Amino acid sequence: MRKRSRLAWSSAMTLLFLAFFLVFSLSSADEGAFIGVNIGTALSDMPSPTQVVALLKSQQIRHVRLYDADAGMLAALANSGIRVTVTVPNEQLLGVGQSNATAANWVTRNVLAHVPAVNITAIAIGSEVLTSLPNAAPVLVSALRFIHSALVAANLDRQIKVSTPHSSSIILDSFPPSQAFFNRSWEPVLVPMLKFLQSTNSYLMLNVYPYYDYMQSNGVVPLDYALFRPLPPNKEAVDANTLLHYTNVFDAVVDAAYFAMTSLNITNVPVVVMESGWPRKGDANEPDATVDNADTYNSNLIRHVLNNTGTPKHPGVPVSTYIYELYDEDLRPGALSEKYWGLFDANGVPVYTLHLTGSGLVLANDTTNQTYCIAKEGADSKMLQAALDWACGPGKVDCSAIVQGQPCYDPDTVEAHATYAFNAYYHQMGMGTGTCYFNGVAAITTTDPSHDTCLFPGSGGKNGTFVNGTSLAPSSNSTSTSVSSSSRCYGLMTAFKVIGVLLSSMILL
Predict the structure, then answer these.
(1) Catalytic residue at 286?
(2) What is the pTM of this model?
(3) What is the rounded CA–CA span in Å between residue 270 and residue 203?
(4) What is the structure's pLDDT at 370?
(5) Which one of 91, 128, 338, 415 is the catalytic residue?
């Protein structure tokens, strides 16, 4: 048995760390890149706002983008903690961009009326205005400025960023990325827009669709390259100017945006991808719009983003991304594929289950509630031990199943025991937002970690029954007196209770 030292209780700082461990976990959960989801409403049987938010919560989705600022949806999102991007629709853009008063009124009605109950973090001004509504381009920058001024007046400009989503088609010669530049006919708009984003610490909103890059390349772009599938080194795309290697279209497009901004002397505006996805069904001329490809692309994209891989130009720099989209939209016009980008149908049933095992994800795409919280692979053992002790102590998890002689004692590793405790806490807390974080050493998976007679809370219970997350499977050797990392944890429970009393006393004082 591998020995692990007891925690030292020699300082007040240690006590405070443990007391505030969960709070810190929750507040840190959004560090790094995140995955969000777009919510379109072109459904013949659109779920109610309450149903939409229930689905978001069940899937641990913490970031959403609305294509408007619907009052009913915002009311349903109140007090959910979900971070929301609202949108000034294209049809309202001319009015907002031509009148400071109209913009201020828009902010009053659609933002001030809902914060702070609704966690609005960004306002998207229009959608692909330069390519879909070019007659409104002359007022786009003024719309950004007017909306931002209204936020400044309300002292919300630091909390809520203002930007505008662009189609990646405004970037010309996107490969090699180092030679990319924006369509120069749009520079009178793009230059002041980028300077606005820079001065307000905002970000470039970009829609990235490798599906269309693949479809329009006439065979030049390999399907595997579009889908994030592993490529042998000799198949990777190499930028001859920088010698950077690209293994997928997504990274190449994002880096093309960075290089295009650099060509305009803008070097410190980050990119957030507002739309990306893959359709699961299409017309006869769209043979690669399949369930398997949609699953492959979105699974690989989510894993790539949440691993904070970054891009070849900016490795490790987060590229937060919103998946297009939550629901299939059967009322969308155009090609058949336009209707089938969703992760769920109108009833909230997943149209396919994403393959996300081992990627530390928050989006399970699984309404059966069969998701589990596990110790993240490669996590620091000391942090795992501290988190394990917290879960079995103030976290009030019943860790008796991982005492020596009990069904979940083996394997006797801190990773295995932490996985049991993390998952028990996660299900004990109703799989709520932030309950599978543990200071960054935990991750959500759809793979049941149960093994042999060790059944985890949330399991189908093939080998036993669970009541309130506690295993009732038969145990053996229950009288063993050997000590494991878990039983040491139980010995600290009384100390934790004393600490709680002491901390309460300190607060009262």
Answers:
(1) no
(2) 0.69
(3) 5
(4) 67
(5) 128
